[in-house]
Amino acid sequence: MRFSLSSFLISLLFVVILVLMLQFILWKKKSIKVIRSDFIFGLFLIIFLRLILPIELPTTITLKSEHVMPAIFTFFQTEFSIAGQSFSVLTLTLVLWGIGTAVGLLKMYRSHRQLRRTVGRFKQTLPLEELPFLDAKDFQFLKKKQIPLIQSEVIFSAMAVGIFKPKIILSKKVPLDSPELKYILKHEIQHLRNHDILFKYLLDVLTAIYWWFPFIYLLRRQLNLIIELRVDNQVTKALPQTEYFAYVESLVAVVKTLAPAADKKAADKAVYFSQGSRNVLYKRVTFLLEGYEIKRTNYALLAILGVIILATTSIIFEPYNDNSAALDGTLSLDDLSDLDAYLLHTKDGKYYLFYNGENLGEISDTNQDFFTNLPIHEDN
Question: Is the distance from CB of 349 to CB of 316 less than 8 angstroms?
Fold first, then answer.
């Protein structure tokens, strides 16, 4: 595996194509009838990993680029002077990139610290025993992981926060005997099982690194919808028909009373049942209604993900310049043969290459493949 400017640029090109493909799938109504959350999440993972590892593999095929890549490389190698110091465009680009990344990570840290302080003020813990609708599986998960349920008047419905010490925060505005609370809580528990908060943090780190890349912001918005579609599908796939549509109705109720801005401030660092705009919530409802009979993607379509993985790692473009005219009259090492070339070993221990009786210069390493078969003459 090797990282290079070429592998980095081709990775970004594939990311652009796949993000646009993902956007089309998410918002084209006809597509969600056949493409479900398993395919969508798989496509997201491919994009996610390509951003983390913009490398070329040993099996990658190198293709020549005679115009675009040479122009890009020439641009980055262009030098200029500032206060008498010479810099290349590449050096300046890396410096600005580093500064932007540091600023982004600092903002992310401050936002995380502010969320921790806000959540730390929520003290009212709810005993699990007061929620009789919790099934044994969810009850044991919360008990084993020591995940507290906290009530607050600040939030609208419910949210899950924290990576290493997760918490589920329930709104006091939703009564404990509300039929919707059962599905809201199952939704948040599934987020924690999926480690969705970790995904959001990792993508935030990538956003800080790729702050100059506009498609990273589109991908971050897509993730908010993708993890909700995935959790909705996971929670409802085992529900009977009546409960399936009860879950959908609970989302419809949220659409009618959209979460206020207080909830949205935590959107980047938490996951919650009512997450997203009206359009996102409408999309989730539509996805569930369209997917009642088709809960997973056809295996033939899932195989396309394998093709995409191969495609994104199979080729790379390298700059190529055809300088054959400039090479006229020069000597290639392939032209050397036992008949017209030899090495001269002088008394001071040095080696010189002779070709057609002409001294072509000193050879510092005679162990190279080019010279191992050449005869060696001693200087008398």
Answer: no
Which pLDDT tens digit goes with each residue over 98-126? 999 999 999 999 998 988 888 888 877 88
Cα–Cα dist 327/333, whole Å: 13
**Most confidently predicted of 71-85, 154-168, 197-211, 281-295:** 197-211
